[in-house]
Amino acid sequence: GATADYVGRYKQDAAAMDRFVLLYVDYDERIEERIAGKHTDILERVRAVRKACEDLGIRHVVSYRMIVKAVKARSARVAKRDIDRDIIFAGLDESAVRQLKTRVNAIVKGEA
Question: Where would I find the H helices in the chain?
Fold first, then answer.
């Protein structure tokens, strides 16, 4: 359905929705691992960001594509802080980034 994240989609009416069974499909860890390859630190960070967004109720798309972009940036020797700014936290305001970084650090340290 239509959300602020996917503005090109329109909410379906109840009669149309009644014809479908809705299933939740999460990200496949094995696919993420294959995408990340040897960059396990990127995968750990992306997963922590996804969990932090969920915990804090912050709307931010944390997808396979984020892993792909971060791995390509790392392979091109882009600095971690730039990957964070331009890929991991792109589009978020400073307050959301601060909250997420605090929560992500706690998740990574096992304090979550």
Answer: 14-17, 29-36, 40-56, 64-75, 80-83, 94-108
Residues 38 and 22: their CA atoms lie apart, in Å, by: 35
Measured between alpha carbons, how far is 56 from 47 in angstroms, rounded to an integer?
14
CA angle, 31 as apex, 45 and 108 as ends, to 5°? 20
Which residues have C-beta within 8 Å of that of residue 4, sequence separation ≥ 6? 59
CB-facing half-sphere around the CA of 72: CA atoms within 13 A: 9
Give the predicted TM-score (pTM) of the model: 0.81
Rg (CA), the chain: 16
**Residue 68, CA distances (Å) to 19, 62, 65, 105, 112 in order:** 35, 11, 5, 22, 26
The per-residue pLDDT for range 25-71, each reduced to its tens digit, is 899 999 999 999 999 999 999 999 999 999 999 999 999 999 999 99
d(CA 70, CA 111): 25
